Structures are given as C-alpha cells and as structure tokens.
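Researcher: Good morning. I'm working through a list of sequences from a screen, and I'd like to move beyond sequence-only analysis. For each chain I'm collecting a predicted structure so we can compare shapes side by side. This is the next one on the list. No need for commentary yet; just the structure.
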Amino acid sequence: MKLLINNAFRQPIRSFLVLVGMLVAISAFGLLRTVVEAWYAGVDAASSARLISRSSISLVFSLPIHYAAKIRQVEGVSAVSWANWFGGIYQDPKNFFPQFAIEADTYLKQYPEFKLPDAEYKAFLVDRKGCIVGKKLADTFGWKLGDTIPLRGTIYPGQWSFILRGIYEGKDQTVDQSQFFFHWAYLNERIKQIFPRRANTTGVFVITIQDPSQAAQISERIDQQFKNSLAETRTETEKAFQLSFVSMTEAILMVIQLVSWVVIVIILVVMANTMAMTVRERTSEYATLRALGFSSHYIAGLILGESVVVSSLGGVLGIMLTHPMAHLVKSHTGTLFPIFYVSEGTFWLQVMISVGVGGVAGLLPAWRMSRLKIIEGLRHVG
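Model: Good morning. Structure tokens for this chain:
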C-alpha cells in the first residue's frame, strides 16, 4: 500500500489534476442523478392502494361531486374522497407550490404518511377558512400557526384568505412537505356565488382500495359506472397518474441522465490516458522489478492498484461534495423540488463508479506491462 501511494503521487501536479477531475465528475454525476430522482419522487412515493379517478377527456374538465356515492358502492373500494387543484398565487408568481381544495376528513385519512398533531387537525376541521401546509412550505415562507395567508386566484379569480391551522410533516423524507390544503366546501361556497355552473364539481376522486393487486379490475368497474355519461371517467393507480405528468418532461430527463454518464465516460478517458503516460514513463522500473524476481501479476497489481487508489480518493472527495451541493440546490430551488436528497442508491452508484473507473483505466496498461519482456523494458527510454 505504501508503494501504491508513493507511486500515485510521484507526479503531484498530474495526480492533483486527476483528483480534481474525478471529484468534479463524481459530484456532478451524483447531483444530476439526484435531480432525476427528485423528478420521479412523486411516482416513487405513490401508494399502490390508492387510485385516482379523473375526467377521461382531460384534467381541465371537472366531475360531478355526486359520483362519490356511486364509487363507494363499487366492489373493492374502501374509501373515497376528492380534491380540486386551486392554482393561486402567493405574493409573486415565482412562489409556486401545489394547492388543493380537499374534502378534509376523508382525504387526510387516506394519507397516513402525513403526520399532523391531533390538536391542529381538529382546529383545521372546524375552521371553514382554515388550511394546513407542509413543514418545508411553512419554513420557506416563515409561516406560523394562526397566520393569515392571502392567495390571488387564477383558475378561481378573486382574493382568497386562509388561516394556517396545521403544519404536517412526512413520515420519512420521501413525503412531499410543500403542499397547501384547504376546505373544498369553502371553495365550493364561493364558486356557487361567482360561477354557479362550476359548483358541486371536483377535479379528481381519490380512492382507497382493499386489495392493491385488484387495482386494474376495480378501475375498470369504476369507469364502467360512468360510461356513456356526460362526464366519463378515467381511473388509474396513483403511480400511473403521477407518471402522466413526468412523461411530459421525459425527453429532458433522458438528456440529464445521458449527460451524467457522458461525464463519467470523459473522466474514464482522462484517467486511462494518465495511467498510460505513467506506465510508459516507468517501463524500465517495471522491467527491473521483473528482473529481480517479481511476477508479472505483481506488476499488474501495482498498476491497477495505483489507478484505483487515485480514482477512489477523487471519488470519495466527490461523494463528500455531493451532499452540500444537493443541500445548496435544495435551498435555492424552493418548492420546485419538494423532495430533494441524495439517495442511498446514488451513493453506492458513485462508490462503484469511483472504483470501476480506476480499474478500467488501469486494465490495458497493466495487461501490457504483464506481457513486457525484461530486455525490451530495460532498453526502453521513457
């Protein structure tokens, strides 16, 4: 090991540049992977026991609220609730965050991953103008319990005011804590006054089923209930529903993933070139070792070991840098990425790449030196 380390840093400037290259490549790879995972976070966190029923034409079209009673009667359904996308603006259009008008009691019971103190939950239920928000959202804008939160309506025009009655947390870091919920009854009451024809409707129904393996059959039964009606439904799993949004930006995600691997290929080429130069300069040394009785496998091991030591050290530094970089991105993107953290899978992928780049880069030079004839090596001038 001492010999490996001494060899690895015999050319300090070259070794330093390679380390910096590995650091940048591994940290960039980890950050890009984290961005992709953040985009799919809602899909990964979706429950297999929940279905979403919406208009078969588009989410823009609403469904009559009386559909809920018929959906409850479908075999395999254990609970039904509903929600409306609100789309209000808080102070500035840049302050985007998801806002939903929900049927409070039944909706929250279907999301046990939202952890809300009982006192705050009860205060929310009894306050018609009450709302609850995720902890991340509250921290972003400095909201506290009892604060009045004004929103300017876009889909539903006018000035709306809500009183913060609860701040929920997620059961783990995969739960979106940047959402805003208020009473559907309050929204519906205002709609009756402004747009009577749009009253008593909802954007989606959230359905909990008894057996997740029967999701396809239950979805079909629900859609059959409203076939050939004026408002036909399309029912799918919560994961499929989330994927329909992600698919809109799938090309962008593919480019980001491609770039993350291109970065690794580039550093692999740089590393391989560096090791080729290093071995060429030391050809006579390796030939001398062979003449002293060291085996060709030992020589190959030295070269591979040196390559792995340099790449692994650069990789460790890159992995260490990934977390503060992710935290910096998270703090500057606000609610754009509700869930943004370096996953365990990304960490282990970085580790494997760090070791793998060194191994692959040193493979060819090691093989060449293991086949080197001693006489030719001693005659070599680096």
